[in-house]
Amino acid sequence: MNRLKSTFIIAAVTTLAANAQLSKGTVFINKDVTTHIVMPENIKLVDISTDNFIGNQCASNIVRIKPNIEQDSLGKSILRFHNCQMLGTLTIIGERHIAQYDIAYADRPSNAASIYKVKQRDLDDYLNPGVAMPESDMAAYCWAIYRSGRKFNNITSNKNGMKAAVNNIYSVGNYFFIDFTMLNKTKVRYDIAELRVFLTDKKEVKSTNVQTLELTPVYTLNLAKGFDKSYRNVLVLDKLTFPEEKILRIEMSENQISGRVIALEIEYEDILNADGFTPDLFKKLPDNVPGHLYQ
């Protein structure tokens, strides 16, 4: 009787361990389940300590893993793992944090994690010299700016039934955040072909050697491909200085051979008047995304 009782207790404890898929520090996987581990920031490096499980980075912030199941000469799977067996360690390095998990085998698919979102308590901070600001922070600042009122009124452009205006310019750390709006005053939908940023000479400069440098935004809030009436976006650029004879030009072109092109030209004086944020503000993203971002 005592032996049966002991067997029952061991089985119950084993089941509880497997059901606690995500007891802190452990993720359970199964041969019939692909486990997706979601980091709250972009992933820079993934390390799998053994060949007992395999995986890859399938998105900028997602790693997928599965047990490494061998096959015999006839192609039949050979399962060499038992329930709750530790298979190795998974280390995920993000922009500013490291997460590390023990990976264990679950004999039932229902006891394996199909999606596991990395919790804040599982993250260890580290200083990454290559990342001045995590993308998640950029997104939070962009949303805060997007939801704010317009402070700039002197930078506008009108052309081909379109109106463009700069709403705000902010300086945060090593970056400039430029908030602008495009209005379509025609009844023809505007399909966006390209949105580009240049550092170029002012129109007034009569030079035979016009020098133009294209700048690549570090982050873009709005990835919509077109709009009917209005479009608002926030671009993040590396902080830069440029001489007074240069301007920062944001140019949007339409996805047609004879498409409409409209541009905004920002003087260095306007860049110098950028507002600033304190680092601890605007960290939470809004719950509801404005619908016209995805027209």
Key structural traits:
295 residues; mainly beta
Compact overview of the structure:
The protein is mainly β and 295 residues long. The protein is built from three helices and 22 strands. It has two domains: 21-131, no CATH class; 136-294, Immunoglobulin-like (Sandwich), CATH 2.60.40.
How would you describe this structure to a colleague?
With 295 residues, the chain is mainly β. It has two domains: 21-131, no CATH class; 136-294, Immunoglobulin-like. It contains three helices and 22 strands. It has helices spanning 2-19, 135-146, 268-272, and strands at residues 26-29, 35-38, 43-48, 53-59, 62-67, 70-71, 77-78, 86-94, 97-105, 115-117, 123-125, 156-159, 162-172, 175-184, 190-201, 213-215, 219-220, 226-227, 230-238, 246-254, 261-267, 275-276. The strands form five sheets. Strands 12, 13, 14, 17, 19 and 22 form a six-stranded mixed sheet that branches. Strands 1, 3, 8, 9 and 11 form a five-stranded mixed sheet that branches. A hairpin with a 6-residue loop joins strand 20 and strand 21. The longest helix is centred in the N-terminal third of the chain and has 18 residues, at 2-19. The chain starts with a helix and ends in a 19-residue tail after the last strand.
